[in-house]
User: Fold these one by one.
Assistant:
Number 1:
Amino acid sequence: MDFKKQLKEGLLTQNPVLVQLLGLCSSMAITTSLFNGLGMGIAVTVILTCSNVVISLLRKVIPAKIRIAAYIVIIAGFVTMIDLLLQAFLPPLSEALGVFIPLIVVNCIILGRAEAFASKNGVLASAIDGVTQGIGYTAALVAICVVRELLGNGTFGSGVISAEGARILPEPFPAMIMILPVGGFLTLGALIAFTQWLTKRIREKEENEA
Amino acid sequence: MNLTSLLSISLGAVLVNNFILVQFLGICPFMGVSKKMDTSIGMGVAVIFVMGLASAATWAINEYLLIPLQLEYMQTVAFILVIASLVQLVEMFLQKMIPALYQALGIYLPLITTNCAVLGVALLNVQNDYSFIESVVHGVMGGVGFLVAICLFASVRERVEDCECPKSFEGFPIALISAGLLALAFMGFSGLKVF
């Protein structure tokens, strides 16, 4: 399989959050610090890859009529594993993400990839698809996190670089609003607009060259 | 449990902790079906219905099955299965018994299975240790909050569609920004406390 092509699709042209507009709840709810965004991104990538592999393995066994229910059970199994692992080994992350970890079950990205890709392709291709789409999701989350944390809190990388993160904007400057739900909507809206602009530019450039 | 706590749960679910605009649960259907007012109302009513039922069903499952068997860690799996089969059941029941309502809600029902507000409300009920009545009230009122938010948003969006805006912002991004402004308005309710 063409790893590079799939990576490009995952990161930009078919980015799950910014282009396919899947999994918006989590991408706005928990993206208040780099730590949360990275944690959530990695958790989803792992679950997506595992569920893609298993669903691809079972794609000939699962009857078409009850496939969605079967997919959901498989996904829920992996989500429960990750949930328990995080509770045991990374309690701060588990606390910060709260109810959004079990809610990965209904994250449309995972079910969407199961239905659109893993149920039709081989194991290796599905695994690569899981990893690349997961990376795309993580990248989108991290981008939202960086903007919101910088504007809302004035810091960068809190929880990852150090507990407080590196302070970039001086104390009274940051606008609290970007950390609040409003900031999530505004940042994601602007980011999707930017992606649309970028993909259009790339397409035009390719057309000119052709 | 008394009337005051029920009232504060209701008020919280509809306004202060609105599922969509404050807690970010159920954004997908919120963005997906809010292009027109009538579809939004249909979706909102279906969500109220399912969230109420799901709260009741998951409470019973948790209390009488998972806790006695010490299977609390299976919550996510059990709840999503209950919700999925519940939605299927409701759909079949409506199709058979109340065709008119089925016609109105039909297409929205399957979509609700993957509405994270439904699973979210079930998990939050357990987290908050709600009693049976409190869970059901929380579920129904959460649905009402969804209806309020989606109706407000649909009417905003119908107007936004006609306006000119920068090319890159057309469609989804501008809808998100308007949802953001709506969330800003709902922030005014935070700190609202009765009693």
Number 2:
Amino acid sequence: MAINCAMIGSGNIGTDLMAKLMRSPNLNPVWMVGIDPDSDGLLKAREAGLKTTHEGVDGLIPHIEEDNIQIAFDATSAYVHGENNRKLQEKGVLVIDLTPAAIGPFCVPPVNLKDHVGEQEMNVNMVTCGGQATIPMVAAVSQVQAVEYGEIIATVASKSAGPGTRKNIDEFTQTTARAVEIVGGAKKGKAIIILNPAEPPLMMRDTVHCLTETEPDQEAITASVHAMLKEVQKYVPGYKLKNGPIFDGNRVSMFMEVEGLGDYLPKYAGNLDIMTAAATRTAEMFAEEIENGTLTLKKLV
Amino acid sequence: MDLKGKKVTLHDMSLRDGMHSVSHQFSTDDMIRMATALDAAGMPMIEVTHGDGLGGSSVNYGFGLHTDQEYLEAVIPTLKQAKVSALLLPGLGTVRALEEAAGYGISTIRVATHCTEADVSEQHIKKGRELGLDTVGFLMMAHMTTPEALLEQAKKMVDYGANCIYATDSAGYLLPDGVTDRIAILKAEFGDEIEIGFHGHHNLAMGIANSLAAIEAGAGRIDGSVAGFGAGAGNTPLEVMVAVCDRMGIETGVSVDKIMDVAEDIALPLMPTPTRIDRDSLTLGYAGVYSSFLLHAKRAAKNHGVPSREILMELGRMGAVGGQEDMIEDVALEMKKKLV
């Protein structure tokens, strides 16, 4: 039996997520929550037969019990996530946070999904699109040897960055940098995001630089990077290592390209896909736990 | 062109844009010597930060010899009249960095975005105003959009609280008519309420001509750099600009003799290679490529055995925007693959 889900936020991420959830074997999207009745996301959700509200999370709360919503995805903005999270947890709903609010622990599936099993967590954070695209590579290096400093540069097509992302640009850089440290394993992390308006839109690009403490073991790092690449490709098939790893002294650099599935925005918007695919994979793991009884959803009191 | 009696505020970039030319390696002593000499010459505004602004120190753009804090705290207390500005690129610099810089005593914050992406500057412009700073919206690579679209972006920045808007020719691509069109439309909309500024690069030797076109169209602030010390073929050379303004009767408040001496005696000796229009910097202006890419492209060319001019042309074709320095090595690696 599939677990019923709600999506909060009917922007680029929420709408792309809907397509992923509809294909999931053990997740069942039931509600789409927005704030603009005319938003494209709500329209698409209605067409797909979902229940919708344009009254924000308050429009959803009264229906949680009758529709047995157990998992909610918040794709609004870092500013409103705290309040959304509180209201949902009062109802015992597990929250997957796709904003950079980062109230709950970070989850980057190929690196630390298993760490979240059996932890009884009620809120996990998916870092940022740039984080999902790069932290696996930082981890691939730090699993081989100590990384003094990890830096990521995420370039996304302007058309794929909605108003939430734009208003939250500092949260993006700060949350990503912190997750480069906590999940990626770099002692110090830095993140940079760039929006590029070129037409036709460019594919999401990510560059990862690691400075290793000692001379990099080129063979072991290259093997680790390729193994990690395969792990990410399991849920984001368009995740590519375009160049690298290249080695220059203690610098190890990887140049990534992320092609999306084209579910909502066209294929250039790999930044949406990597985020929504990671969130879907995370939720599927929790859904299994709920189904086999290892995770009991508790109401926040 | 009759500009007699116009007043403009000149803004020196040598200690920020010039940082690109020295791979961000100015010592604090270099900065103090340059800043105090500019101050004594009557330069009203001086920008001091990493070349890519607050928080720019990185693998991607190059690590600074010192932190922004060390530079700002070294320079600001030594100045008698000049005010210090800092640059901030959202996506790289943060509100936190802005608050810290305000604490070190900057008077002006210049929040820079690509010319079509002004809405990433909301948090930073609002904070700048809240801190009581002279807050500038700095629209980079202004040649990449139309004057009308540039105006729409400028309106957003003004809505957030900017009291001055710049059309920034980061690639040194614009010709005087292109500057006139952009400044004029901003002036027509904002009148005297919002100051208008122009930031030029000298890649097509248009620094002075473009700055004069900007003044004629209503710009009140003009960026430049002593001896052109800046990315690409440098910024508008300020000692030349001051001399030209003096001849034309434009009031700058800067001493012609003193600024010439700063350029010749202090700025030039600090340059690792003279700032000039070589074939690579000319390519920047010709192809419309971000000036700071210059030295990164030269380095990638050397490391990977491909011509720097071809790297720059390819970046132009890709529509690379400011900050995308990481693409330079990637482009070089792609070109290298094709050579094999």
